[in-house]
Design brief:
Ferritin_actino (chains A, B); mainly alpha; 251 residues; 77% helix; Ferritin-like_SF (chains A, B); homodimer; Ferritin; tRNA 2-methylthio-N6-isopentenyl adenosine(37) hydroxylase MiaE-like protein (chains A, B)
Chain lengths: 251, 251
Amino acid sequence: METPKTPSPDAAAEERSREVTGVAAADWAESSADPRYRAAVVDLLGALAYGELAAFERLADDAKLAPALADKAALARMAAAEFQHFERLTGRLREIDEDPAAAMEPFASALEEFHRLTAPSDWLEGLVKAYVGDAIAADFYREVAVRLDSDTRALVLAVLDDTGHASFAVEKVRAAIEADPRVGGRLALWARRLMGEALSQAQRVVADRDALSTMLVGGVADGFDLAEIGRMFSRITEAHTKRMAALGLSA
Amino acid sequence: METPKTPSPDAAAEERSREVTGVAAADWAESSADPRYRAAVVDLLGALAYGELAAFERLADDAKLAPALADKAALARMAAAEFQHFERLTGRLREIDEDPAAAMEPFASALEEFHRLTAPSDWLEGLVKAYVGDAIAADFYREVAVRLDSDTRALVLAVLDDTGHASFAVEKVRAAIEADPRVGGRLALWARRLMGEALSQAQRVVADRDALSTMLVGGVADGFDLAEIGRMFSRITEAHTKRMAALGLSA
């Protein structure tokens, strides 16, 4: 579940861009004076908040597929944790005098579309989706944290710190594959589809939201670099592939 | 939302039965030495826990009907609160070395049946159900609290203290009735149906679970008194009728 620790050329580039912008050294009061940075953070918090709310709804829905009460409770627990993240993120938006609904609205259709296209057809698909979603969210939070002012970063890291409720899914999925290896093939395809749909919706968002996209690749001072966005997606995809292999779901 | 404060003949009877049994003066260690009392509390915690889990699922489901993001978040917030109650109740079951799933299982079918028969067909029906369910649960918790040992009572009151998330529903329902008075007639019928189905499932549970039913009417020492169960249901129904009238939903 860890992103690779070895410094890569990408990490070095990341390091440079951080030095250039220096947002990470500033707090919210200072950095939000730049209206483009402010708009990017409002976008980010809105996207994350809607993502948490949508995840809450889908996990609560998937809980119905649980074969046993304890499994149902485990999925409901993850859903409730997502809702707590939603509360923190929308609370922060209100703190900075932004309307949470207005901040979330631009991201609703991409997230709804993702969930519509990836409705699990059974309990195991639901588990894999919960695990993959939790892990990708954690990777993304970690990627974006370094681009943020100290106040916003503290919030994002606090929300990140509280993920990982999905680890119980690993055990269940492994046991199911052991019992019937054909399950592994089906779930590997499913995990690939999840990642594909996630990337395709993420690319829609990147294309639509300039301020957010620019910030994601190294701060507003550097301008929007599509190649760097691509590298971020590659790192996340690579981490996903490693996790899937560890789970016995090699592509 | 308050139960009537004036002492009624029922309240006096309640007072007497409390004096007789004295469970309220004892703590869990002392009172659980009686296996019938212990069985009754395990039943109670199991029934409440499953009730909270089922409420979580249905509220999360109803959140989909919300006309606006803020409404969706409000219903999701109630769902998450129910899940926190679930965690406390099942946590307590584990503390007293009981398996939560086994304790919940006897109540699953009655609660599932209740929700199956009362699936809201629109947002307003969902709101009325959330409000009615929250209030009836609070009334029931208050009724049962006086029968319990000090430790179990503290838990039940703590969970009760955290309800009332449904008050936002009152405002929305009132506004909808004002805008279209015919809505009031439809929702009044709906609220009656909710109460009817709740009572019918509760009566099933009473018939099936002797130890629980006996405790609900004044402690195991007094034996099972069906008339007293009836009076408890009457008090809860009366409080419900008053609340509905206050909401503009007179029958």
